[in-house]
Write a structure and sequence with these properties.
Elements lengths: L1 E2 L7 E2 L1 E2 L2 E2 L6 E7 L6 E7 L2 E6 L2 E2 L4 E2 L8 E2 L6 E7 L2 E6 L2 E2 L6 E7 L6 E7 L2 E6 L2 E7 L1 E7 L6 E7 L2 E6 L2 E3 L11 E7 L6 E6 L5 E5 L11 E8 L2 E7 L5 E6 L1
Antiparallel strand pairs: 1-2, 3-4, 5-6, 6-7, 7-8, 7-9, 10-11, 11-12, 12-13, 14-15, 15-16, 16-17, 18-19, 19-20, 20-21, 22-23, 23-24, 25-26, 26-27
């Protein structure tokens, strides 16, 4: 993004050495299509914000205080998925069409690898709900985050909180840790699926400087950390890395 000059304070988009947009008051949040041929971004003019595709307006006028929202392209690059804020209501949009009904807010949008499913978290009347292809997955939650699809796109996992109790949900099934492995779970986050199966792991904590990783069956597969930095699957192994109480990096792997 370049400013036309410091007095006028107009911004425009540059791709390589060519101007690629009209002048706007502000431009932000870029996303390239999978083939790299198209770019979408938010642009502000006056008190309104628009989603732009190159030099073309894609969205209806959005509220002018609308910042920090991600833009997603479908795998074939033909659809742009984003959140529109209009008159204080939030709607999930596909191109210029409303995909969802209106909510107080929409957060944490995820798209399956095959591009056929969209999962997102909505806020309505101070409760959070998970929507999968626009259908609500019960129950209503006090808080939700960390949506992730499995490799085939037929399952999603996410973190849920009800009355200060934290848990991982897989679709609409709650995962409960085994008490012998983790008798007092205070916080749960960051579920991931194995790329080779529907095996799931997630980060749990039973206190300060007591973070560890559990499987979906509640088996502990890591030592205790003060913080877990990485957990991932590679070459058929589950791998992890974190800091111990002496601030030393600890790494490991298990099959």
């Amino acid at each position: 993004v370049l400013r036309k000059n410091e007095r006028v304070e107009k911004e425009f988009l540059m791709l390589d050495d060519k101007k690629a947009s009209p002048d706007f008051e502000r431009i932000w949040d870029f996303a390239f299509s999978p083939d790299g041929k198209h770019i979408a971004y938010y642009a502000k003019t006056g008190d309104k914000v628009f989603l732009m595709l190159g030099k073309k307006k894609i969205s209806p006028p959005l509220d002018g205080d609308f910042y920090g929202r991600k833009i997603f392209f479908s795998n074939n690059g033909k659809q742009i998925i984003y959140v529109a804020k209009i008159n204080e209501n939030h709607t999930l949009m596909i191109n210029d069409r409303a995909y969802s009904t209106v909510f107080d807010d929409i957060i944490d949008i995820k798209i399956s690898r095959d591009g056929k499913k969209i999962a997102f978290i909505v806020v309505k009347d101070e409760k959070r709900f998970i929507l999968l292809n626009n259908e609500i997955i019960k129950p209503a939650l006090d808080y939700a985050s960390d949506i992730v699809f499995n490799q085939n796109g037929d399952k999603i996992a996410y973190r849920g909180v009800i009355k200060d109790k934290e848990f991982i949900m897989v679709n609409n099934e709650k995962i409960t840790p085994l008490t012998k492995e983790a008798p007092t779970i205070r916080r749960i986050s960051r579920p991931i699926f194995s790329p080779f199966s529907d095996e799931i792991t997630y980060v749990a904590s039973s206190g300060e400087c007591e973070y560890f990783i559990l499987t979906g069956e509640g088996k502990k597969v890591s030592p205790d950390f003060c913080s877990v930095e990485k957990q991932y699957f590679h070459d058929g192994k589950f791998c992890f890395a974190g800091y111990d109480k002496n601030k030393k990096i600890v790494t490991g792997a298990t099959r």
